[in-house]
Amino acid sequence: MTQLADKKILLGITGSISAYKAADWVRALRKEGGTVTVVMTESATKFISPLTMAALSGNRVYHHMFKDDEPEKIPHINLAREHDLNLIAPATAQTIGRLAHGLTDDLLSAIILASSAPTVVCPAMNSKMYLHPATQTNIATLKTYGYHLVDPDNGTMACGEEGPGRLTEWPVARQTILKVLAKQDLAGESILITAGPTREPFDPVRFLSNRSSGKMGYALAEAASQRGARVTLVSGPTTLPAPAGVELIAITSAQQMHREVMARVGEMSVVIKAAAVSDYRPASTYDHKVKKGQPSLQFELIANPDILKELGQDKKNSGCVTPLLVGFAAESQNHLEEGSRKLREKNLDMIVINDIGGANTGFEVDTNRVTMIDRNNGREELPLLSKEETAHRILDRLLQLMEGKR
Ligand code: CTP
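Above: the input record for the complex with cytidine-5'-triphosphate. Below: its predicted structure, written as tokens.
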């Protein structure tokens, strides 16, 4: 993953016991391509050594307002100018208070006040300190100044108390960082995305389903939300957490998905159907668990509605150019021919085709290799990428199509 490539991040570490976790965050930021400069408050240096942070960041660590070796340089002004993003993690009540009141009696708060880059603040402290009205008021003030606050987790603290105050986990902070840094090129768009499998019940215990994990659809929802779209995710059963800022509509069967999609499509500028919808469902379901005993069992399947085809047909009938319709085709043979056929037959604007026979592509894995074909016969083949990167590339292509329509 290289979502932070070329990004310069200033990581401010303050004096909380969770300062040691910042060491892992430096590694995670660098792994994503970011350049990290660490600034520590004096109390942070009591919890973790500047030497550790220097070794992990590969950069000089700053914790004094004045550099003894270069007195002519004013570090807080230079550091404030040089970065794309400031991340304060962990942020103590003291530092939050300083920033809320514009106090600059240490290097970190002076830098933040002098910086015009966005600032993400991840509070971590004892839960009583966190819940104290003074801290809550300071946090509310920071929000009005445009700082991006990431709520701490609930749990047992180092001091033995329970409650909110634990430093958030890296994936949550990462989502906020990516959103803050993302270009807002989908602002104003309403995008409906379907994801995951559907389950078609047979009796109270069994159902007919497929191997879809929902990862591709969730990656698209997260990427579109990062880029400023209002995202509604209609999802079959998955084990994935709902992406932040996305409206999640949980469904089980194809008929439920059909209902939820049709109820919302009128408000959407784009519909992306990444879900693996069951084409058939059992014609009848049993109220009680079917018992064994018969040498064989037969049951009839009836066709589910083809949701995407119906959307394409409605669009043709209405003569409207919106919503833009994007389908997926997971194929095990003749994938380009099959994908092109679905593009035409379902009246789509674009189809994303993947060959599920390839190594590391398709179901359950974190990577994908797709080809996109649009209604003007434009074609783009992507290399093997993470589903997250694939999602951004699909959205880039979608934007080009949208530009063509306006
Ligand atoms: N789709 C849908 N409703 C269905 C079946 C599929 O909306 N009942 C959508 C999928 O979400 C996907 C696209 O249609 O975006 C293609 O789905 P796919 O399963 O690849 O193709 P099918 O149309 O079902 O055809 P086949 O199973 O014969 O390959």
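Notes for the reader.
The longest strand covers residues 324-331.
The pocket of cytidine-5'-triphosphate is lined by residues 254, 273, 275, 277, 279, 304, 306-308, 327-330, 342 (CB under 6 Å).
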